[in-house]
Amino acid sequence: MSERPYVTLSCAMSIDGCLDSTAPQRLAMSNTSDLDRVDEVRAQNDAIMVGASTVRRDNPRLLVRDPDRRARRVAEGKPWSPAKVTVTSTGDLPPDAHFFTTGESPRFVYCPGGMAHSLRDLLGERATVVGVGEQVTMAAVLEDLASEQGVRSLMVEGGGTVLTQFLEEDLADELHLVIAPFFVGEPRAPRAFGAGSFPWTASRRARLAGSAQIGDVVLLRYALSDRVGMLDGERSLPEAGWRPVPYRVP
Question: What ranges does the record give for the region Disordered, renumbered to this chain (predicted)?
Answer without folding.
Answer: 73-92
